[in-house]
Every structure is written in C-alpha cells, then in structure tokens.
C-alpha cells in the first residue's frame, strides 16, 4: 500500500526539538496568518462556515496562508518587558512590568497575567516573588525541564528555513534568549509549503524536520 507522506502530519506537532533560543530572531503572531483571520471573520457571520474555518492551521501552510509578518523579537513588547525586568530583578518594583500591573490595579481594580487575577498589591508582589523570580532562577539554575509539564514554545518554519517564534511559552523563551541559555524545547506548529517541497514517501516530512534540527546541533524526541 502506498504510504502517503502527508498522512497524520498533525502528530508532528507533538514532537519536541531542542534549539538554542539565540537562533530565533523573529516573532510571528498566529493572528497574522490569513487563514486564521479569514476564520475569525466568518465565525461572526456564518455558523456552518465557522465550523470549517475553526480548524487549526494545516501543518503544511501554503504561501497564500502563511503570515508575511516578521517582527524582530527584540521589538515585541513582552520581550522588552522581560528584558527590563531582568535588568531590575534585584529591585523589581522599578521594572516596567511591576509598574504596569500596579497602574492597572489602581485604574481598573484588577491586574492580570493570563488567567491570574490580582486585586491588591500583596498579590502583585506574590506574583513576582512566587512566580516570575522563581521562574527566572529555575531557568538559570536548571534550564528547561520537560518533566515539570510547562508549556513548550511553539515555532514555525518559513520558506527560507528560518524558525519563527509563535505565541506560546514566550516569557520562558525571552528569559532564555536574554540570559544566554543554550538549549530550549520547541514544538513545530507548521511549515511553509515551499520549505516542505520535495517531501515524498521515501523522505517524509518528519525525517526532513529531524534532519533540519540535527543540522542545528540539537535533537528531537516525541512527547
């Protein structure tokens, strides 16, 4: 039976690869992919159409559907906030991040980080002391530990073979890149169709991705 090289590509999203975060220079938000934008527009109008477009991006993304945005990671606000925090880690109350949360607290009665809600200054301090600083110190001391079950950063591979940082795991990525950690786990969420060109049953996409990361001096493992 013919082995279709495009079968079960979604399972490739589970594979974990290790890479030096310094090799990732650009960020691409998922919302910048035309496929996702089209899905969102239709979702507000046609329930039947939204069911079709509410699927995740295909693993092999066509040239038309691939994002044309390449934002240098240093220009991403979250990256700048982390960089400033690290510079002020011994006095984090002077950091942009802390000041922003305190401003939100005073103006809105609540400061948020993802799903975490902070309603008083003690909770903001607890967030920094119990989470942010602990995360920083853990990465410095031990690097990344997959056994802790934390989010693995998501990346894409563009037509030229450049690795683009997605949205997941951005704070860990920023810390690792700024302080010079050499190994970080990532999961590939999709590849540009032109980069995947030449995939066959004898040379499946999984093997091409493995070879690509091996050339970077890192390895892959299935999660």
What order do the helices and strands come in, and which of them pair?
Layout: E1 15-19, E2 26-27, H1 34-43, H2 47-53, E3 60-61, E4 71-72, H3 77-87, H4 96-108, E5 111-113, E6 116-118, H5 121-142, E7 153-157, E8 163-165, H6 170-179, E9 184-192, H7 205-215, E10 220-222
Parallel strand pairs: 2-8, 3-9, 7-9
Antiparallel strand pairs: 1-9, 1-10, 2-4, 5-6, 7-8
Helix pairs in contact: 1-2, 3-6, 5-6
Description:
The structure is a single chain. With 223 residues, the chain is an alpha/beta fold. It folds into two domains: 9-46 and 54-72 and 145-222, no CATH class; 77-142, no CATH class. It is 38% helix and 17% strand. The chain has seven helices and ten strands. The protein has helices spanning 34-43, 47-53, 77-87, 96-108, 121-142, 170-179, 205-215, and strands at residues 15-19, 26-27, 60-61, 71-72, 111-113, 116-118, 153-157, 163-165, 184-192, 220-222. Strands 1, 2, 3, 4, 7, 8, 9 and 10 form an eight-stranded mixed beta sheet that branches. β7 (153-157) and β8 (163-165) form a beta hairpin. α1 packs antiparallel against α2 and α3 packs across α6. The longest helix is centred in the middle third of the chain and has 22 residues, at 121-142. The radius of gyration is 20 Å and the shape is elongated. Residues 1-7 and 37-54 have low confidence and may be disordered.
